[in-house]
Amino acid sequence: MAIDDIRSSMRSNEEIIGRSDLDDAEAILAITTLDETATVHAVADHADAIFTWDYEKGARPALSKLYEKAKTSQWNGETDLPWDTAVDPEQAVREQNAAMNPGAESLVPPFDTTGTPLASWGEAEYLALGMEMQNHLLSQFMHGEQGALLCTAKIVETVPWIDAKYYAATQVVDEARHVEVFAKYLDTKLAGHYPVNAHLRMLLDDIIEDSRWDMTYLGMQIMVEGLALAAFGMMHQTTSEPLLKQLLRYVMSDEARHVAFGVLSLKEYYAELSASELRERQEFAFEAAVRMRDRFLQQEVWQRLDIDVAPLIPILRQDPGRILFQQLLFSKIVPNCKKLGLLDAGAPAGGKGWLRERFEEMDVIQFEDMVDTGEEYEALDAVAADRATAGA
Ligand SMILES: [Fe+2]
Ligand SMILES: [Fe+2]
Q1: In this structure, which CATH number among 1.20.1260.10, 1.20.1250.20, 1.25.40.20, 3.60.40.10 belongs to the domain 62-70+90-96+128-391?
Q2: What is the CA(8)–ligand 1 centre distance, in A?
Q3: How much is the pTM?
Q4: pLDDT for 73-90, tens place per residue?
C-alpha cells in the first residue's frame, strides 16, 4: 500500500476512541458499567486454535531462556506471602498521600473546592475517599489480572511458535496466582471488591475480541501489563505495609517477564508487517492508552459515594499527585512502543510518527528513552533473589 493510501485510510481520534478531545469529561463519564449484578461476562474471541508440528525447542533462544526462567521462579500465593500481617487501611492512604504530595501534612488537597460537593469536606471525608480509591485501584488490578489470565490462555492457542506456546503456558499459571492473591488481599485485608471499571472492561473486551494473535500481545503484554508494571512499582515504593509490599514485589517479578515476552515476540513479528498493518497497531496502542487513562478517573468510586463527579473533574485534574501518577503509569509503555518501532513507523521523512504525536498529546512522550523491558526481568526477579539469600 502506498503512503497516500495509508493516509486516506487513517482514522481520526473520534473514530478510534469515540471523541475528538482527549479530555472531554462528559464523553468519558458517558461510558459506564452496564450490568453490575451479573457474575459472568461472555466475549467472542474470534480466533482459530493453532497446532504447530515444528517442535524444535529453542528456535527462538530469547523466548526459550524466558521459559526456563519462568519454571524456576514460580512461587506459591498461599505460602510465600505473610498473610498473618494485620493491615491498617488508613495508614496505607496516608502513606500514599505523603508520597504523591511531598510535604503535605493533611489529606485535604490544597486546591479550591468552593461551590463543589467537596467544599464541606475535612480530614475524615478525604480519608474515607482514600480508602475507597485504594479499594477501587486494587480491584482493577485484580480484574486486569483476570484479563491477563484469559489473554495468555488465548495466546497459548493462537501463537504459531512452539517456544511462545511453552512460555505463555507458564504465564497462565502466573496470572492465576495474581488473580488469587489480589482477590485474597481485597477480601481478607480490605473491604471487598469493586466491579470492573467501564473503560477497563471495554479495553479487555476489545483485546479478547481481536482475531489476530499479535493484537492480544500488543493489548495485554505491552499496554495493560506495561501499565501494571509501572503502577505496581509505584505502589511498591510508596507502601510500607509488609504484606502488600511483598505481594507486589513477587507479582512484579513475574510481570517483568510477561512484558519481556511481549517485546521479544512482537519485535520479530513487526519486522514482517507492512506500513498499513503497523498503522493499525499504532491506533490500537493509542486506543488502549486512552482507555487506561480514562479508567483512573475512578468514576465508580464517586458513584458509590453518590457524588456527581462531572463538575469536579476540572479541579481533580489540577491535583499534582494525580498528574504525576497518570504520567508515570506510561513510563514502561512508551519505551516499549519505541523499541517495537511503533512510535515512528510511517513517519514522513524528517517528520514525526503518528503514535509519537498521540503520546505528545497525552503528555507522556518524555519517557521514550527510559529502560525498555526486554531484559529487565533478570534484575526484577525477587523470587530468585530471596531464594539465593535463603540458601546462602
Ligand atoms: Fe499478572
Ligand atoms: Fe502479567
Answers
A1: 1.20.1260.10
A2: 38
A3: 0.94
A4: 999 999 999 999 999 999
